[in-house]
């Protein structure tokens, strides 16, 4: 297929997606982080359908995806200078800003809160879709998966998760980041980190020239996407263990006759020298960016192999690994 034909096909798919969204249907689309499940923000029934499709609590807010920074103050009120500064630096990109919502954002999108999460995604298909929708439109879109489960990083993952529950999946290939956006709140006197993600907190601090507080210091906790204690979870039970004890735990489970998948980093590869027929080793990158790109797809692949247990080596206690630590902690939470 030549470039001209590919471009024409993409334009046709975008036009079809817009028509579906405008008619109140739900469309899955790619972003640089994970695939989103989109609804026209002006269509109440399409927004309600998102919660039904995902099995998501209605008080759990949806992130609003917009086409460009110039529309920020259409969707939010009283945007502080520091929020504009971050948007100018990181958008399009994996940064969500929590701000006081404008009257254009329905409470069904925000889970009943007077705040809204906004971002401009860094993916050509997502941006083309948003621009085709029009200036006063946006996509309310959580990740395109069942609530609490692994986020999808490919169109095939969306198909596996949601199948014929949605009207269309725009295929944009593999997501280049693979972890959800960093969420920063500006609903207090200082910016607060509500969720670590695709942009390191150190990069945000450098732009603002100030330290960013963590959400544990929030006096009035906001409901925030992706921050339930149990989230991002595979179907297979996941445990996180230190480098020192992970293989001991694997051997204990193996002695019980369980098939165990062991996720370790490349800089811990001495662990794979212990051979056991019940233990399957997965070697992950020692680079946190590459690890993040691989994480959800790896957990999904292990789910398909029907292991009894997945053991993940705890990441280093360093800022670059903060988002990985957050996802593994929530994915392994025992409900």
From TrEMBL:
Top-rank taxon, per record: Bacteria
Gene Ontology CC terms: cytoplasm
Coiled coil: none
Subcellular localization, as worded in the UniProt entry: Cytoplasm
Secretion signal, residue range per the UniProt entry: none
Keyword terms: ATP-binding, Cytoplasm, Nucleotide-binding, Nucleotidyltransferase, Transferase, tRNA processing
A biological process term (GO) from this entry: regulation of translational fidelity
EC number: 2.7.7.87
Catalytic activity: L-threonine + hydrogencarbonate + ATP = L-threonylcarbamoyladenylate + diphosphate + H2O
Main location per the UniProt record: cytoplasm
One Pfam family named in its UniProt record: Sua5_yciO_yrdC
InterPro entries: DHBP_synth_RibB-like_a/b_dom, Sua5-like_dom, Sua5/YwlC_C, Sua5_C, T(6)A37_SUA5, TC-AMP_synthase_SUA5
GO terms of molecular function: ATP binding; double-stranded RNA binding; L-threonylcarbamoyladenylate synthase; tRNA binding
Family indicated by similarity: Belongs to the SUA5 family.
Its job: Required for the formation of a threonylcarbamoyl group on adenosine at position 37 (t(6)A37) in tRNAs that read codons beginning with adenine.
NCBIfam families the record matches: L-threonylcarbamoyladenylate synthase
Record's protein name: Threonylcarbamoyl-AMP synthase
Provenance organism: Nitrosomonas nitrosa
């Amino acid at each position: 297929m030549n470039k001209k034909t590919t471009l024409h096909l993409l334009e046709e798919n975008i036009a079809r997606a817009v028509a579906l969204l405008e008619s109140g249907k739900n469309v899955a689309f790619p972003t640089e982080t994970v695939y989103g499940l989109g609804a026209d923000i002006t269509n109440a029934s399409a927004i309600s359908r998102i919660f039904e499709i995902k099995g998501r609590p209605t008080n759990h807010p949806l992130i609003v995806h917009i086409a460009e920074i110039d529309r920020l103050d259409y969707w939010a009120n009283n945007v502080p200078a520091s929020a504009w500064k971050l948007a100018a630096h990181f958008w399009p990109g994996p940064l969500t800003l929590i701000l006081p919502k404008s009257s254009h954002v329905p409470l069904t999108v925000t889970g009943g809160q007077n705040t809204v999460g906004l971002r401009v995604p860094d993916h050509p298909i997502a941006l083309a879709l948003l621009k085709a929708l029009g200036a006063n439109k946006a996509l309310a879109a959580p990740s395109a998966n069942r609530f609490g489960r692994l986020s999808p990083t490919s169109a095939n993952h969306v198909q596996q998760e949601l199948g014929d529950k949605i009207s269309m999946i725009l295929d944009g290939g593999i997501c280049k980041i693979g972890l959800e956006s960093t969420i920063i709140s500006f609903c207090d006197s200082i910016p607060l980190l509500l969720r670590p993600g695709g942009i390191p907190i150190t990069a945000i601090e450098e732009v603002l020239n100030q330290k960013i507080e963590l959400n544990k210091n929030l006096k009035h906790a906001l409901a925030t996407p992706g921050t339930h204690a149990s989230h991002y979870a595979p179907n297979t039970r996941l445990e996180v263990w230190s480098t020192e004890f992970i293989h001991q735990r694997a051997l204990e489970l193996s002695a019980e006759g369980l098939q165990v998948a062991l996720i370790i980093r490349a800089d811990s590869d001495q662990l794979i020298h212990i051979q056991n027929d019940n233990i399957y080793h997965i070697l992950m990158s020692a680079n946190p960016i590459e690890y993040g790109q691989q994480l959800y797809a790896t957990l999904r692949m292990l789910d398909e192999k029907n292991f009894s247990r997945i053991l993940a080596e705890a990441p280093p206690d360093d800022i670059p690994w903060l988002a990985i630590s957050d996802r593994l902690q929530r994915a392994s939470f025992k409900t």
